[in-house]
Amino acid sequence: MDTPSPASDDDAGDGSSASQGLSRRGLLGLALGGGVVGLALGGGAGVAGGVALGRAQAADDAAKVYEFFGEHQAGITTPVQEHLHFASFDMMPRTDREDLISLLQDWSYAASRITQGLEVSATGAVGGDADEPPDDTGEAQGLPASGLTITFGLGPSLFEDDEEGDRYGIAALRPEILQRLPAFLGDDLDPAQSHGDLCIQACADDPQVAVHAVRNLSRIAFGRAKLRWSQLGFGKTSRTTTAQATPRNLFGFKDGTANILADDEDALAAQVWVGGSDEPAWMAGGSYLVARKIAMLIETWDRVRLSEQETIIGREKGSGAPLSGGDEFTEPVFTGSDIDANSHVRLAHPEQNDGIRILRRGFNYVDGNNELGRLAAGLFFLSYQRDPAQFITLQRQLSTDLMSEYITHVGSGIWAIPPGAAPGSYVGAGLFA
Amino acid sequence: MDTPSPASDDDAGDGSSASQGLSRRGLLGLALGGGVVGLALGGGAGVAGGVALGRAQAADDAAKVYEFFGEHQAGITTPVQEHLHFASFDMMPRTDREDLISLLQDWSYAASRITQGLEVSATGAVGGDADEPPDDTGEAQGLPASGLTITFGLGPSLFEDDEEGDRYGIAALRPEILQRLPAFLGDDLDPAQSHGDLCIQACADDPQVAVHAVRNLSRIAFGRAKLRWSQLGFGKTSRTTTAQATPRNLFGFKDGTANILADDEDALAAQVWVGGSDEPAWMAGGSYLVARKIAMLIETWDRVRLSEQETIIGREKGSGAPLSGGDEFTEPVFTGSDIDANSHVRLAHPEQNDGIRILRRGFNYVDGNNELGRLAAGLFFLSYQRDPAQFITLQRQLSTDLMSEYITHVGSGIWAIPPGAAPGSYVGAGLFA
């Protein structure tokens, strides 16, 4: 098979147009270079409620459509979808600045289409020349947008590689706080499930739509970046709106009761979004993403008596109420209560951490089982914060967490999440202004 | 942690009651031994439409409830759900006939509850003694039944083990046609993803519900059987009712257009259900399940030009119509048409195979990616047939399939699927009558 991929016949190099990389044929359908995208954008579009485009917003999840362009990238405060396909990429050797620019442009172009329920280009899966491979791999034909969001991130190694240094001329623009995370107690990290120059978080209510996104974005990256590792997840373990019920993690407990919600604008400004006075300026409106693959020893956990499980978490298993009383949403009381000093709920609570909070967006995962017949399962933890120090502080605080006996951190990564792109532009454009 | 699992304190040994294995506490909630299960059962209950129990059958998938008991096991002609967790088990060394009986009883008891949206026992996740581990692992608390079906199967090695022989006194009852599948061209089978004494097919519209089922059934098996391998799948690749749209596989083509549907009673009787005059008698109303994990070389496929992809499949990629013309549901014409003699649609067609058909129930899978950055993805093929020879004939016919270049069979298994259990009984009871 020597048929070229659609990406390999690009004029990568001038970076003059976001629509240029993937396919000139794409121009026929949606001219991004000129900003001719018929989308009504509010200031917070794509943030909390989603904007329905070109079809009625049905009650059905499948009909949900979220805007790709906007002040912030979608997929952060967007109501958490049911499925995740997360992918980490490394740039290919001997790629240059223009390769990186064209990749980010092509990715934004494709993401702006597939998040609207379209194919990756105007010719799509079957509309092009029958003597060429289709632009779109086709497995999402006929499926609605399904609430798809695509969130792009830039890893520390993109700015400065251990071997190749400042490959892309962006080292001076690196946020000082974007550093590989320090080692934590309980880490047993697999490099093959950690780190990466770039990341894509694809969330959707249909896993086929999320998988289609990562597959096609990976294909578009051909010759420029290569999939390093990827992870499927399901059954969101945190909520981001009050309308969502608090889901349960694989320990059987409600998780994310105290998460930062999309309508808590003060908390978002203070804890999640990089501010206008923060450095570097190109990150304003962005955030920092930490991913941790946390293996749960679920067979061991399942043999722990109920009272001990509840002591470890600090909450009732059924109701989710703190052991100090009340219901799920009652604030826990730590002084003189039944909540253990080393319970998860206490150690992670803002009251114990100078008011630090993070926006959690994790998913459960099951990767089959090991040779002992134990499920290879756990939590794929994702958190967004204004400064990675928030995560680091919380994670260090959890070093005495009673839960530590039942989990192992096996994967880790950190990425700068640029602000959202304006129509006609692309995510990361601020780096190359 | 030396807390015993709920299964380890059973009186395994007399097999007198289906409710005995898991937990005496379970008796408080649902007395199976006496058949006191308040379910209205029609003759074909659980087969085609599902029976709503205890709640209104909403349009929402989440509200779907399928009967566990019935003439046939559920999960075969049941409208294919969105998610799969398939699990293969091996019996533990030095287990005896009573261990096997009690395991099948306990599994049926738990399955009869969780398929109705209940917890695995009456005490469930939080209702028991706080000084013991809960019976139910709890992550499905608050979730509806989500169309869950549990289908149990018995592998050739259960009847007669290579080393231990007739461990359970059932070798004489083994169906002669239940044999490990022969080697096929293109096989590259991984023993760690193949075979097994027992299998569980858990299908649901919520992956958390399917995972909860396998996790808890695996836990119930503690000391008697051990998870050998397991597979998650999504995005059903076949339909089993006319109401379902034909889904697409990861090659981007509609798949299962010509599948046997749940309302085609003649085809089900002729091709899927073991008949009353077939041997052995205990299998009447049952079926045989073949599972094949088929890795797809999707990056290679994605570089094949559209016209060649359509030649390989024998259908149009967009519409699903055969290349001989018409629409998706037009019968293909092979003589003098544009359909290649070695196209997939022709080789697999009943016309080329003495009228042989199978009921397909496969799912897409993605297991991350390999070190080359290629997605480890494909089709987890499941088919039900009255006789394994049906699958063998079709698979041999496919040896010249043009598609072979783009797939590798990496896992394989075959299981006898006993008929459904009557209320108060359990799946497999016919073996021990």
Structure characterization notes:
- The model of chain A is unreliable at 1-59 (pLDDT under 50).
- The two termini of chain A are 39 Å apart.
- Chain A has helices at 26-29, 97-114, 156-159, 207-220, 265-272, 298-301, 306-313, 344-347, 388-397; strands at 83-91, 149-154, 198-204, 225-234, 287-296, 359-360, 363-369, 375-385, 407-417.
- The first copy, chain A, has nine helices and nine strands.
- Chain A is globular, with a radius of gyration of 22 Å.
- In chain A, the strands form two sheets. In chain A, strands 5, 6, 7, 8 and 9 form a five-stranded antiparallel beta sheet that branches. In chain A, strands 2-3-1-4 form a four-stranded antiparallel beta sheet.
- With 433 residues, chain A is an alpha+beta fold.
Quaternary structure annotation = homodimer
Identify the biggest protein-protein contact and residues per side.
A-B, 72 and 72 residues
Number of helices of chain A: 9
Low-confidence stretches of chain A: 1-59
Share in β-strands of chain A:
15-25%
Mean pLDDT of chain A: 87
The coarse overall form of chain A would be globular
The major pleated sheet of chain A works out as: 5 strands, antiparallel
Distance between the termini of chain A: 39 Å
Give the helix/strand class of chain A. Answer: alpha+beta
| Amount of helix of chain A | 10-25%
Radius of gyration of chain A: 22 Å
Count of beta strands of chain A: 9
Q: How are helices and strands ordered from N to C of chain A?
A: HEHEHEHEHEHHHEEEHE
